[in-house]
Amino acid sequence: KRLFFQEEYKKALEYINEIEKTETIDGEVLFIKASCLMHISIENYKNVPTFFGIDTDNDLALEALSILNKLVAQETVEDIESLCIDIARLLMECYKYRHAVVYYNKAIEKNPNVDLYYYEKALCCETILEFDEAIKCYNKLLDKNPYYEDIWYNIGEVYYNKRDYEKAIEAFDYVTVINEKEYNGWFKKGLIYFAIRSFEKSIEMMNMCIKIDPKRNDHQLYIGSSYSEMGEYEEAIKHFKLSLEMNDRNLSAIIGI
Length: 257
What we know:
73% helix
């Protein structure tokens, strides 16, 4: 256990394998063994973007999954719910999002009243682009608390990634109604209006951003870009210059001028 918690996964695994030669190990140690295998299996992905490691099951990962599946199948396990959540979180940590969803589903089946299970499952679904399932999970949480700002924001992000801009704006509207000082809600709406060429609305959203946090320069850049698209070049240059005052290496603002 000490080696595992010190993240000495290879040493911990060697020690467990030696123990297995002479005695039967219990479920807790089996879980640690599977965890070690899973962590070792993803070492090659530590320095690359997460999506390259998604559901790439090498031999070590498959062995770990086999152990975990056997653990859950054991009739002697007293708390299947907790075990499934531990497995789901391990798999999520190791970029095995599709496998993690399976275990979140098992935990939810055992206890459908834990909000965090739905939230964490939704994050996995977002990562593997299962947007509709993510939205279902978030809506479950909104059924309990319709004023959950973070959930509305996540729903907005999901619809934004789906390019369903109308529903994305609707979700971000809830964010800014619940908390009118939420910069990112206004900014996301500004981005969407810019993307659909509603430049006046984009400027309106970005001006709200300025009121909340005038020191940031990204809103000035989009205001300048909106004015440029509208053919109001003097106004565009003014805002590009304001953006450069805050960040003199802003290449987009330099190009805009």
